[in-house]
Amino acid sequence: MVRVSAASVPQPRASRADETAAASGGRRSLAAALFLGAAGAAVVLLASGQTWAEGTVAVGGGTVPLNAAGGDVTGVPTALAIVGLAALVAVFAVRRAGRFLVSTLLALSGAGAAVAAYLGASDRSALDEQAASVTGDAAARAGSLTHTAWPYATAAAALLILAAGLLALRYGRSWPAMSGRYERDAGPRTARSSRRAAPADPERPEELWKALDRGEDPTREP
């Protein structure tokens, strides 16, 4: 009878090809998140400064043109784009639970900016405020109201920030952390610095004073 012990059965191991594929997937997701987050935030900041709404108001027998930029309509997309950029950088400075929280913040920033931009696409309050200011009549309202495509461009760009946050939530565990790299590099530098430190010169004045404090005679030959 042939006996086969449990210890003799080889355990499956991850192949080098599997490890390489996982590392490659992590690099691709990292590059995609960086690109989507940075590009989305840049477009949101740019589009928020463009004209979102146009109209006119009657003044004296004529009309005065009015226009409202994205920042006049709502400042939420701009603020959340800045928060998203900060969170995108912070993802690499934290680990574990901290990385999960920052990734969640990144995704929420994109979602919030998209919703705010979409709602601002039909907002008229900014033009009505301008109409009241131009005419001096608090009841004045803007007429011939039209909206541009910039609010929708802002919302679409904000969705890129959301996508970056979702990638960070899904693949962030395999991404490198800046703090870990710096900690690894600090050890060798410290060791090299200690090896390169020159021995103290006993003839230097401060060394003579230290010898006197220790009760030694610095003039005595060793």
- Discrete helix count: 8
Amount of beta strand: 5-15%
Low-pLDDT windows of residues:
179-183
| Shape designation | elongated
**Percent helix range:** 55-70%
- Reading the helices and strands in chain order gives HEEHHHHEHHH
Amino- and carboxy-terminal Cα gap: 80 Å
Class from helix and strand fractions: mainly alpha
Protein name: TIGR02234 family membrane protein
Biased composition (Low complexity): 188-200
Region (Disordered): 1-21, 181-222
InterPro entries: Trp_biosyn_TM_oprn/chp (IPR019051), Trp_synth-assoc_CHP (IPR011746)
Overview of the molecule:
The protein has a three-stranded antiparallel beta sheet with strand order 2-1-3. The chain has helices at residues 16-47, 70-73, 76-90, 96-120, 125-135, 150-171, 178-196, 205-213, and strands at 51-59, 62-69, 143-147. Helices cover 62% and strands 10% of the residues. It is mainly alpha-helical. Helix 3 (76-90) packs antiparallel against helix 4 and helix 4 runs antiparallel to helix 6 (150-171). Mean pLDDT is 80; it is low at 179-183.
Short descriptors:
single chain; 222 residues; mainly alpha; three-stranded antiparallel beta sheet; 8 helices; 3 strands; Trp_synth-assoc_CHP
Write a brief caption for the model.
The chain crosses the membrane at residues 30-53, 73-93, 100-121, 149-169. This protein has 222 residues and is mainly alpha-helical. It has helices at 16-47, 70-73, 76-90, 96-120, 125-135, 150-171, 178-196, 205-213, and strands spanning 51-59, 62-69, 143-147.
